[in-house]
Amino acid sequence: MNQVLTTPVLKKPTNVSINSELLLKAKQLKINLSATLEAALIEIINDKQREIWKCENETAIEAYNQMVENTGVFSDELRNF
Fold it and tell me: CB–CB of 5/42 below 8 Å?
């Protein structure tokens, strides 16, 4: 599935609450919080969108799988493995 963002966009400042110990360790390790949060959000959003897509298409996927089970696929006669 494609990443959430495909073109560069303007960044918007926001406030978040973070465990103070984690924040201190991240600063000590010079971890870029914005980049880390963006990467995590992209992964989570992609996972959620994948779940939604599967739910929305569950009936069609089941119908296709049932059809393949009953009748096979076009290439069944063409392959020799």
Answer: yes
Within a domain: 11: no
Please report which confidence band the pLDDT of residue 4 belongs to, taking 50, 70 and 90 as the band edges. low
d(CA 66, CA 69): 5
Enter the pTM of the model.
Answer: 0.69
* Angle between the N-to-C axes of helices 33-56 and 20-28, in degrees from 0 to 180, rounded to the nearest 10: 120
Q: Range of 62's domain?
A: 23-71
Dist CA 76 CA 67 (whole Å): 13
Give the DSSP letter string of 4-57: S--S------------HHHHHHHHHTT--HHHHHHHHHHHHHHHHHHHHHHHHT
Higher pLDDT: 64 or 8? It is 64
Question: In the chain, what percentage of residues exceed pLDDT 90?
Answer: 73
Query: Is 16 part of any domain?
Result: no
